[in-house]
Design goal:
about 40% helix, three-stranded antiparallel sheet, homodimer, disordered C terminus, globular, alpha/beta, TIM Barrel, 12 strands
Chain lengths: ~450, ~450
Amino acid sequence: MPTITGVEIEDVRFPTSLTADGSDAMNKDGDYSAAYVVLRTDGTDTTGAPLGGYGLTFTIGRGNDIVAAAARQQAALLVGRDVDEMAADMGAVYRSLTSDSQLRWLGPEKGVVHLSVAAVLNAAWDLVARRASKPLWRLLADMTPEQLVDAADLRYLSDALTRDEALAILRAKEATKAERVAHLERTGYPVYTTSAGWLGYSDDKLRRLCQEAVDAGYGHVKLKVGADLADDVRRCSIAREVIGPDRRLMIDANQVWDVPQAIEWVRELARFDPLWIEEPTSPDDVLGHAAVRRAVAPVGVATGEHCHNRVMFKQFFQAGAIDFCQLDTGRLASINEIVAVLLLAAKFGVPVCPHAGGVGLCEMVQHVSVLDYVAIAGDLEGRVTEFVDHLHEHFTDPCVVADTGSGSGYVLPARPGYSTQMHPASVAEFRFPDGGYWSMRQSSEDSVLAPVR
Amino acid sequence: MPTITGVEIEDVRFPTSLTADGSDAMNKDGDYSAAYVVLRTDGTDTTGAPLGGYGLTFTIGRGNDIVAAAARQQAALLVGRDVDEMAADMGAVYRSLTSDSQLRWLGPEKGVVHLSVAAVLNAAWDLVARRASKPLWRLLADMTPEQLVDAADLRYLSDALTRDEALAILRAKEATKAERVAHLERTGYPVYTTSAGWLGYSDDKLRRLCQEAVDAGYGHVKLKVGADLADDVRRCSIAREVIGPDRRLMIDANQVWDVPQAIEWVRELARFDPLWIEEPTSPDDVLGHAAVRRAVAPVGVATGEHCHNRVMFKQFFQAGAIDFCQLDTGRLASINEIVAVLLLAAKFGVPVCPHAGGVGLCEMVQHVSVLDYVAIAGDLEGRVTEFVDHLHEHFTDPCVVADTGSGSGYVLPARPGYSTQMHPASVAEFRFPDGGYWSMRQSSEDSVLAPVR
C-alpha cells in the first residue's frame, strides 16, 4: 500500500584519518564514509512515524561521491514502487536493479556499481523490514525455505549449489529455529574486537587496548600486520602477553603481500599461534589463497571484505582456499547475494565470520550472523563476528555488544529494520563537502584541524 | 620539457542501439560509449601542432558519466607533470594513479575506478608516444627488457612470474625484433571479424555479412549465441555453409550460462566445429571456465574482455582454464598492466587474441598485438585479433584492415601515439547529453529517432 515517493542519496564522511582509527598496512589514512540511501514513502510505521528505508555502503573517503552518483541512478528505479509488492518478491527487486545491461558493463557485479547497488538494496531491505515491524534478521528467519531461496541470487552457482540443495539446507534447520533464537537471546552472537590493533597505534596504546579487551570479556583480539616484520613480531608479543595463551589472536595483512611473501611472513608469526591470517594477498587471488593456506596450516586463512561477489566466494570454497568467510554487507549486493553466500558456506562447511567496522557495518552484520545461525548454518562452532567500537553514535538504533557471562556478544536486534538509519544531525554535520564539519575544516585549512600524518 | 597544463574529460555516446550493432545475449541494446580523456600540454609536436594525449575506455551507455567522473579525479593528478619525466618512468606514473588507498577501496583494481584509470593511462601513453614521435607499439618495442619490465605491474604475480623470468622472456626476443617488424609490414597482423554475427541481425543479414567477410579475405568469423539453442543451431548452420569447412567459426555467449548449461549448450554446437566458445559463463569464474574447457574440448575456451585485472588472468593461466586470452585495452589499467598479462601469457604459452570492437578498442589493440608479436610472444601461431568495422570514422588516425594476399590484417600503425584521438566534431556531436545529436534526439522524443527494439 505505501509507495516510494522519493530517494535521497548522501555522501557522508567521518574524519577518522585524524586519529589513525582504521589504519592498516594498505589503508593508512582512511576517512570512514558512507554512501547513504534514504527511501521516502507516503506511509507510516506502527508508531505513526513516517515509513522510510535507510541503507548504506561503506567506503574510506575519496570516491564516495562516485558511489553516491551510481546509487542515485539505481535508486531512481524504485520511485513509484509499492512497498508491499516489493516485499512480496525481493528477488525481482534485486533483478530489476542489477540487470541493466549498460550499467552491468561497468562491473559486472563488482566495483562501484556493485557497492552502490548494495547501498540501495540495503535501504530496500530495511524498508520492507520496517514495513513488517520486524528486525531484518527476523523477517528473513520467518520466511519459508522457498521464500528465502527465491530472494537469493543463485545465478552462476549451480555447479556448486543447486536450488534443491539450497532448499534442503534450509529445511533441515526449520524445525529448530526457535531454539536457536532463544539461545541467542540469552548469550548474544559471539564477537571479536579489532579496536585494539590498528597499525597506527603506539605500543603503549596497543597494550592498554588489549588489556581493556580482556577486561571487557573478549575472547579474541585482532592485530594489523604487514608493514614491517620486526614491528609485527614486537606487537604480536605484546598482544599475546596481555591476552594470555588461551584467548585467540588474529592477524590481518590487508592484501600487502605477494603469495610467496605471505607464506614466509606468516611462518615467522606462527609462533604467536594466530587463529587466522586475514587478507594475506590480493582479494582476487583464489588460487593464491589456496597456496597460502596449504603452506601456513594450522594457521587459518580468512578473507572476504573485498570479495566482490558470490562467484568469487564459490571459488574460494571450491578451491579449499579459506578457513573463514568474511563476507561484507556493503560489498555484496545486499541480502539477496549474502544469502547465496551463506548457503554456499553452509554447503562447504566454512564458518562465516563477517567483516565489520567501518561505519554501519557492525549494525548490519549482526542481522546476517543471527540469520546464519538461526536458519542456515545452524551452528556457532568456529564463528565469531567482528566488532569495532567506532561511529555507532551516529545511528538511531546502534548495535549493542555486551558480556552476558559467556563472553562478549552482539545483543539480538529487536527494533524494526536493518539498524542503519543515521541521525539527521550526523548527516548534516558530516555530509561532504558542505556539512558543518567539512565546511569548517575547509575554512580553517592549515589550522589544527589539518590531518595528522 | 612540455608540461601538462590541463585535462578534459568527455562523456561521448554513440546511438548504436538503434541498429542492433553490438547486440548479444547479455547486452541487447548498448550505446557504444567512450569516457574520453584529453591531456593538454604547453608543447608542440614535430609538426608544430599542439602536443596532447588522447585516451579512452569503452562502455555501453548508461554509467559512462560515472566512469568520466572517476577519470576526472584521477587525471587531475597529472596536471603540472613534466611529460619527459613521465616518459622516463611510466611505472611511477601508473603507481601514482593507482595507489590512492581511498580510491583503491572502490575496486580494488576493478570496476569503475579501474576502467577510468585505464582511460587516463591510455591518454598518458598516447602522450609519451606522441612526444617521442612514434606509434605506441614502436615506443614499447624499442624499450630495453629492463625498461619494459619496469613499466609493467608485476605485483601479486611472483608466484607465477618473477621479474627475472619476465626479463628472460623479453631478452630471448630482443635480437630478432626487427625481423618480426618487417614481417608485419608485409602481412599486417591477423584479424577476424565480428561484424557479421550480432544477435539482433536477421538470418538474411547474417548470410550476406558472412559472404562479405569471405569476399574480404577473412579466415575467421564470429557469431553471438546463447539466447535460444534452436536459433543458434540455425545461425551456425548458415554461417558454416557460407564460410565453408576450412575457415574458422567462433561463438560467443557473453556470460549468459551457468557452468553445467554452458557445457551442455556447447556440446550441441560442437558439430559446427567452433574454434572457441567465448565467455561461456561469469567472467569471474576461473574454475568454472576450467571445468567448461575440460568438458568441451576440442572446442577451445576464450575469455578476457571482462577480466578485470592481471591477478585474474594469472589464475586463468594457472588453472589451465582458457585456450585464448582476450585481454581488453579499456578494462586493464593500460600498457602497464597489459604488458604484465602479455608476459604471463607468454610464460604459460596461451595465445593473446585481444578483444576489440566497441569504440576505439580496435585502434588500441593493433598496438598491443604488434607489441606482443615483436617483443614478447614472438609468435603468430594461434593468434588472431578481433576487428569490428564500426565507428572508426570518429578517429583522426583510424586503424586500417587490408587483405595483403595472406588474409586480412591490421596494417601496422605508423603515426605517433595510440591512435585514439577523436575528431573534435565527433565529440561535439555525440557528447552526452548536450552534444548536437543527443540534444536533437531529446527534443524529438517519440519521433522516428526513438530507439528501435
